[in-house]
Amino acid sequence: MRFPVEKLSERRLRIVAGVVLLWAIVIAGRFYQLQVTQHAGLKAAADAQQQHNLPIRVLRGEICDRTGQIFAISIPTWSAVVYPQKVKNPEFFASQIAETLHLNAEEVQARLDELQARTGKGRGYLLLKRHISQQEITDLKRLPFGANAISIEPDARREYPNNRVGAHVVGSIDSDGDGNSGLEQKLNTELKGRPGKMRVLRDSLLDPYVTWISDPGEQGANVTLTIQNVIQHVAERALEDGIREASAERGSVVVMDPSSGEILALANYPDFDPAVEKPSPAEFAKRLNAAVQAPCEPGSVMKMITVSMGIETGKFTPESLIYCENGHFNRPGRKPIHDVHPNGTLDVAGVLIKSSNIGVAKISIASGPELLYSYLKKFGIGDKTHVELPGETGGILWPLDCGAKNSRGEPMPCWSSSSHEYIAFGHEVGATALQLARAVSVIANGGMLVSPHLIMKSERPHADGTVEQLPLNLAPPVRALEAQTAMTMRHIMQRVVLEGTGKRAKVAGYTVGGKTGSAQIFLKGKGWINRHNSSFIGFAPVNNPRIVVVVTLNNTPQQGGIASAPVFSKIAETALRVLQVPKDDPDNDIHGMPAPVKEEDDQLEEPPRKLAGKKPEEKPKPAPEPAPEPGPYLLSGPRVPDFRGKAMVAVMRESASLGLPVEIVGSGVAHEQSPPPGELLPVGGRIHVQFARPQ
Amino acid sequence: MKSLSALYDWLGADQPATGGSHRTEPPDYHLRSLPGEEIHLYVKNIDNTKLIRLVDKKDWATSISVTGAALVCSLVVSAMVGPSCYGMLANRRMEYLREERGRLQSQMLELRVQEARRLNPQHVEEWAGTGFVTPTADQVLYSPPSKEAFASLGVPSKEDR
Prior knowledge:
The complex is a heterodimer of chains A (695) and B (161). Chain A has 695 residues and is α+β, with helices and mostly antiparallel strands. Chain A is 34% helix and 22% strand. Mean pLDDT of chain A is 85; it is low at 591-596 and 604-637. Chain B has a domain at 4-14 and 25-95. Chain B has helices at 4-11, 57-119, 121-128, and one strand at residues 151-153. Chain B is elongated. Chain B has three helices and one strand, in the order H-H-H-E. Classes of the chains: A alpha+beta (695), B mainly alpha (161). At the A-B interface, strand 3, strand 9, helix 10, helix 21 and helix 24 of A face helix 2 and strand 1 of B.
């Protein structure tokens, strides 16, 4: 028997079950609607809300010198960007944002109004501030409109810790992060890398919690230069001092390893600050890399090639005699060639040492234009060096044959019947400082034409920690001169420094070879003025040159031997010390005191147009340098300390602190020494210390 | 059935007298019966001495199977949910570590820049002032090779050259 209450419960139960079933059907229907009929749209909406395709930030590669000193490096930063179309009240927005980012509210509002008016509240964005601090990011996120109107975008700041040092080599970048000068421009693609792509899932707070990297991208390549930062710094400082002392307008220096073509320093003055992303036109003009972009008449340094040609071809020997016409060389139908200092008969070596225009012109006449042209080409004149710098020029060397046309189809100038006579001493030809460095390297390295280069190593780091070495495309050296000829030329050029026009280029303790050059400047409307492009090319040590240095000072009243040779000396001294090159001439190691130089200089290479029929003007002679007074340490060496009974480390430490040369033999403690304690050490001598084990 | 007062009496029937004398009269503290208050307690003596405990294998198996099923279900659920939960936690941890790595790399780059600024020759010269003189070539010592020398410091003597 069923009670009435049971009937009632059953009915209620059915009602509840019906309601639950109905609810379940509704839910299932809604599920069906969401998951089946609206699946695609809702999935896309969800993906758009939760998933974001973001670029993977790739930092621009580093640029270091050969010792690892950083020249350029990128630091990741953040920038604040605003979307004007999402700003409803520009005045309020500007006031809030300006306070947070320390900007001018009126300027922000004006820019917002302008952009809103221009874009019609459509597309577009405004870069509010670059490289914002962490505190500013935190403050921005606290703003009520931060999530919509403002975006914090990844950015990077390029740092140049060496400031202006090496600026013309390293270059600079613009506000978009692209290089606009130097290696930054030339290697822009490699340094910049390629941004990757990743998909990010964000939670309700917009914090990422899942990341898929769909494309890792490519990191910017790190570049190690052949530049040595100390040599570079000293080269720039010596160049600046030299320009100031010679009242020059600008100048260039190249220091190179002649055997490998590695450029150890490349400097120009005036220099510039690479950190300035938007330079003024005047500042931008300073970014001209004159050492590779501005050729000038080399003057007498070109005689090095002419004399090499004469010796190499066998037409002349260093002892061959040439009559130098007592300074006035008349040829029928042509303008005469002059020497400033009249010479009678000189041997070929003397022609270079005395820098006789007439002497080299006669060598060129005897050899002929075709031979001179081929030797100029062998020394790389007129050809680009293909160094890794933008805008390099090949210099000026007109084709031998007339009728040739340039890339624009215009006829090119060509050699006249007398061109080879003037080109022999550096006129009617133009070369950059880097081309001259390559040319003198032929003499310095035994006759090989090398490829000057700035990049020692280029490597690309990968996300997995591996490093990929990028290939370097270097042309192999080409023989341009016989080794014997190169050796002969080295010793002739050493005499130029010892006896000739390059006395100021001497370096204490080292043998030096070189050649001075001065080319007078011609100005339209003013003719030939008393200003020169003065240069000095040289190498050291003579027997096994480790460096070649080219110094070019433009628009100076002084000539190469006076203006440029001292700059060479300063730079070469530091470079040889930094490179730990052993001294090969300690007899001339006169404790850093400059050798007294008689006031004379190389020939004034004036073109025949001015000198024809005229007597060369007297040059104003600079005041002679006072002879340095030798200190007492030149006459007597230091007293020898007592090393006996001391350990080897103590002896070496003490001798190093006193600057005394010692030689240690044996082991244990110092037993005997020669010279004995208290005696004067002869100049150039060393202390011989015998060590023995105590009994 | 007994009343409450009777129950008290029954409970205290075998208790010794506290005052040394047997109680003859109901104590004064006994509650008086309220009108209509009657509590009837039924006391039944149960004899469990002959009770035998039998093992019910069927119920035991049922219990085990239910417990096992519950365990399996929880394991299945854990296996289904666990990896995704772990993955989510691991992803959050990875994102945190990635962010931390980026922050540390930025710091390292900043420090390298500062180091480079301090090491650049111009800065060294500025700070060293006159106390740091670049040595001239003749002041530099080097070690030339020598046949008998164990070590040497300085320029070569003339007889070595």
